[in-house]
Amino acid sequence: MAETDALGVVFPFTGHRRSTTALGREVLVDALREVDPVGARLAAAETNWRTGYPAHFRRLVVAGLDNGQASRTIATHGLASIGERLSWAALGGAETSLAEAIAARPGPAPAAPARELVTETVRGDGIPDHRVTIPYRGARLEGDALLRQLEDWTTRGIIEPSCAAAVAEVTAHPEWLDLSDVHLVVLGAGAEMGPLRAALRWGADVYAVDLARPQLWRGLLEDCKRYAGWLHLPARPGSGRLEERAGVDLVTEWPAVRQWLDGIDGRLVLGNYVYADGADNVRVAGAVDALTAALTTDRPDTALAFLATPTDVFAVPRSVVSRSAAAYEGAKLSRALRGPMRAVSGGRLLTRNYLPDADPGINDSIVPQQGPNYLLAKRIQRWRAAVERGHGRTVSFTVAPPTRTRSVVKNRALAAAYAGAHRFGIEVFEPATANTLLAVLLVHDLRTSPRTSGQVWVDEAEHAAHGGLWTTAYEPRSALGLAALLGLAAR
Question: How far apart are CA 210 and CA 301, in angstroms?
């Protein structure tokens, strides 16, 4: 690990090195220990974590199905383990646990050279557009055309009926798009799945946080000028070009971001859309969770927003299982191939998605190539959503559809699988369609009563836009390999 990578939120030492594998295993053991001691022992005994991790992440969901308290216990212990096991490495070499850094007053020892952050504001030249419009296949859908598309997605099992109903409700209440009563904080402002551009089009106050990358900020500033909203960003003071001064590194500067956000008057909506490659994804997820824990303590009225990856494990309702079972029985083309495919693959190809009478079903859409660090980073967000919803906080949590983002396209295997996924009833969204749809769902969650069924898995399944991964006939991992072959041929 380079010297610059050993500051801020870092993995703890295991022996003489910082081990991502050891941390991932230990966090899952801690999360499972009270609710599922057998699962905890199995995770602790896993000798090949990088290939064996999916079974243990699946166990995190299955072990919490009996009651909502079990799921929240897993989430609480998982977050506590992240706080205790991740380290905060300050300048000069001192290290504490991340939990100690969160609790430090007035703040932890700095992990980056001290610098002042000032707020720079850019206002767009546009007029607020308080209409629900979603770009889709070259058109911009609104009104009846949008409602027909929602019905089509629901009929084909691409989104859950509750998702369509929520978007339709916002369509019927365009005044909800006026977000002047809140300040939307977008962590990961450059993320393709984030709501930043939709919110600016509606005229919102957006506080944007991302790395100090001039090209990224140049694009965001140009987009802002086209819309009607206000873009506020942290920057170094000075007279240089704004894109050259903007940005912070949450991994090393989350305490400074906490202080910056504390200076904002009014209610915050803290949206978590961060992403990084490999082990850095866990580091930035830990940093954002530390910021979230600190900020919600400082400002109890803060609302939270998360997007869940569809390539994870979720419990799904009986209605989803029934749709999948019907698709399995009606899969005429692949039905003739199922026997030979299973024989050749040792039963790994074209296996049914659920047992026909499962209630709930367990959808396992993990893509092993994405790795355990990716899934742990996303699980930190799920755990935080579950814990804070249990405390009565307003939480927007939505399962996002599979989408052709840059991070997907650069993974050749996943890009090929997405190219052929339509052969199995899965629709892969373009980023503009996905991020606008998800922004509308965020508005719905802010304007209606929080979803608190008492069962974590039920709340997570609400409003899901899973792209058909839940309702497809086959367990996704057993079909996406074939989808990749078909996708390569098509490309």
Answer: 24
Please say whether the beta carbons of 475 and 352 come within 8 A. Answer: yes
Q: CA 257 to CA 290: how far, in whole Å?
A: 11
Please tell me what DSSP assigns to residue 86: S
Secondary structure letter of residue 310 according to DSSP: S
Spatial CA neighbour of 88 closest among 163, 173, 8, 203: 8
pLDDT, tens only, 237-251 = 988 899 999 999 999
Residue 172: the pLDDT is: 98
Sequence-distant (6+) residues with CB within 8 A of 238 are 245
Measured CA to CA, the distance from residue 311 to residue 466 in angstroms comes to 9
Q: Which residues pair with 396 in a beta bridge?
A: 305
The residues, ordered by sequence, that sit 6+ positions from 133 with a Cβ below 8 Å of its Cβ are 140, 141, 142, 146, 436
pLDDT value of residue 69: 95
Please give the structure tokens belonging to residue 418: 């997405």
Tens-digit pLDDT profile for residues 121-174:
999 999 999 999 999 999 999 999 999 999 999 999 999 999 999 999 999 999
Answer yes or no: is pLDDT of 1 > 60: no
Task: Check whether 333 has a pLDDT greater than 60.
Answer: no
For the chain, domain boundaries: 3-111
Instruction: Name the DSSP letter for residue 9.
Output: E
Q: Could you give the CA distance from residue 338 to residue 293 in angstroms, rounded to a whole number?
A: 49
Q: How far apart are CA 353 and CA 470, in angstroms?
A: 8
- Predicted local confidence at residue 107, as pLDDT: 86
Burial of 65 (0-12, 13-18, 19+ CB in 10 A): middle
Q: Which amino acid is at 134?
A: I
pLDDT of residue 481: 82
Phi/psi for 220 (5° steps) reads: -65, -40
Could you give the CA distance from residue 113 to residue 298 in angstroms, rounded to a whole number?
25
CA 55/CA 43 separation, integer angstroms: 9
Cis ω for the linkage preceding 110 (within 30 of 0) = no
Kindly tell me if the per-residue pLDDT of 3 is higher than 50. no
Helices (runs of H) and strands (runs of E) counted in the chain? 20, 16
Mean pLDDT of the 183-208 span: 97
The pair of structure tokens assigned to 383 is 């755990």
pLDDT tens by residue, 433-443: 999 999 999 99
Contact 6, 89 (CB under 8 A): yes
Q: Cα angle vertex 20, ends 403, 7, to 5°?
A: 95
Q: In a 3-state reduction of DSSP, which class is residue 231?
A: strand
Residue 188's CB: how many other CB atoms inside 10 A? 22
Using CA atoms, how far apart are residues 463 and 465, in angstroms rounded to an integer? Answer: 6
